[in-house]
Design goal:
By secondary structure, the protein is α/β, with parallel strands linked by helices. It has helices at 11-23, 34-43, 60-70, 85-93, 106-136, 144-156, 173-182, 201-209, 226-229, 245-257, 283-288, 294-300, 317-327, 339-346, 353-367, 375-383, 403-421, 426-433, 437-447; strands at residues 3-7, 27-31, 48-52, 75-80, 98-101, 163-166, 191-195, 210-211, 223-224, 234-238, 259-260, 269-270, 274-279, 303-306, 336-337, 372-373.
Length: 453
């Protein structure tokens, strides 16, 4: 059953509109001012709002902006007995679906209500299609480890329990988080990702909780934080163990209370957010050595999921290769790998895990002209990523070098490898390395690294 919220300070309007919409079979909530209307939005599922422009206290235009900021998927129809072109244009620019003048034409009210709900139905259908696409974008592989991950996801997704995903870089932790969200009751709501390692300590609070205008130098407008944007949905705290202890304390309070204040603000903001976190670190050691708060760990680690590295599921390699070939470009349909090449790839350590394999397959399908990848060709394109094929031999490169020379060579190899893993996208590579893009540009120039497109 569709649900309307009417916000108007005239009891007669609330009664008339409420009766008409209820006669159409809709559920109706009413509020005599904007503050009460916002409270109802926080506690009740609402599909559309009929909002009077002239309200006591905070005006309708300000309330409209609050609604579109906090509930962007909710359509708002603005009503006024003091209509003007300027007000109508301002309301539409702020995201109002339509504008009605008093005295109301009840036939037009019903028509607009039906149109609003038709739009809402289309939005939900699109969300369902996206959800189906998510469900198809499952983890590839049938090893016992992969099957166990699927079982945990299926069991935990319908609940709101917090999930902590553990695993090395490139193993697919974000994919697991999206699988949990897609199978949850929040799947039609936002999935908001925060890379905690990529945000400087002095900005993490603003990024997570938002800030008010003038809260600090450069805060020229009010900004909502990730907790607020994810309201009703899922917040994915990637690389959560990279947060400072100060930031962890603030996140702990928000997770415990589901309430926080924006930076520079005094009004508490209540949210309903499911938290999924992930880290590539040994979180037990981080807790033991005092780098990660034990109380936050116990809050987040309700359901742990460990994603094994690719070297521990080499039997899945052919399936993964086939999958990336089928979703890639270039000579992907006709290309095959010789038995010797397959053996070589199975013996590779894959330090970059799934991300490295995906980039390798993409590189090969685009650049190889023939129909078969030989062992020599596979070896060549593995080395293009800057990763040595045989584990343990890389240290031979540093024999006889001075410390600064070895450090520079290691840095060059690491930057080359991360660039290859991220398809030479500087912004993504800088994020993976935990440096600013300008810093990464300097290292690329310093080491004379060729940027491949």
């Amino acid at each position: 059953m569709s649900r309307f919220l009417i916000i108007d300070d005239e009891p007669s309007i609330l009664d008339v509109l409420g009766d008409i919409l209820r006669d159409e079979g809709y559920t109706v909530h009413v509020a005599c001012d904007g503050i009460e209307g916002l409270r109802i939005l926080k506690t009740e599922p609402i599909d559309a709002v009929l909002l009077d422009v002239w309200l006591p206290g905070r005006g309708g235009i300000e309330i409209l902006q609050e609604i579109k900021d906090g509930w962007p998927e909710v359509e708002v129809v603005v009503i006024s007995g003091h209509a003007s072109v300027e007000t109508a244009v301002k309301a539409i620019k702020l995201g109002a679906y339509d504008y009605l003048e008093k005295p109301l034409d009840m036939g037009r009210v019903i028509t607009i209500a039906r149109n609003v709900l038709r739009l809402e139905a289309l939005r939900k259908e699109n969300a369902a299609l996206r959800r189906d696409r998510f469900l198809e974008d499952d983890m590839v592989g049938s090893t016992p480890g992969m099957e166990r991950i699927r079982e945990i996801v299926e069991q935990s997704a319908p609940s709101d329990s917090r999930v902590m995903i553990l695993g090395e870089n490139g193993t697919g932790k974000e994919l697991v988080a999206r699988m949990v969200h897609a199978r949850s009751q929040r799947s039609s709501r936002p999935f908001v990702e925060v890379n905690c390692a990529a945000i400087p300590d002095n900005l993490i609070e603003s990024e997570l909780f938002g800030h008010e205008k003038g809260a600090f130098t450069g805060a020229s407008v009010r900004r909502r934080g990730k907790f607020e944007i994810a309201n009703g949905g899922t917040l994915f705290l990637d690389e959560v163990a990279d947060m400072s202890l100060e930031a962890q304390a603030k996140v702990l309070r928000a997770v415990q209370e589901m309430r926080f204040e924006r930076v520079g603000g005094e009004e508490p903001i209540d949210v309903d957010v499911r938290i999924i976190s992930a880290t590539n670190k040994d979180i037990g050691r981080e807790v033991k050595e005092g780098r990660f708060r034990e109380d936050l760990f116990f809050r987040l680690n309700v359901i742990p999921i460990h994603v094994p590295p690719l070297r521990e599921r080499q039997d899945n390699l052919p399936q993964l290769m086939s999958y990336f070939q089928s979703t890639g470009t270039g000579n992907s349909e006709n290309l095959s790998f010789s038995p010797q090449a397959i053996s070589l790839l199975k013996n590779h350590d894959w330090p970059g895990n799934i991300r490295e394999l995906k980039n390798f397959i993409e590189r090969v399908t685009i650049l190889v002209d023939g129909d078969e990848v030989s062992e020599e060709t596979a070896q060549f394109y593995l080395e293009q990523s800057g990763v040595r094929q045989v584990s343990g031999r890389s240290e031979l490169e540093y024999d006889g070098m001075k410390l600064n020379e070895a450090r520079d060579l290691f840095e060059k190899r690491l930057v080359e490898r991360r660039l290859a893993e991220n398809s030479f996208n500087v912004a993504r590579t800088a994020q993976a390395l935990g440096v600013y893009p300008s810093n990464l540009h300097g290292k690329i120039k310093k080491h004379g690294i060729e940027m491949k497109k």
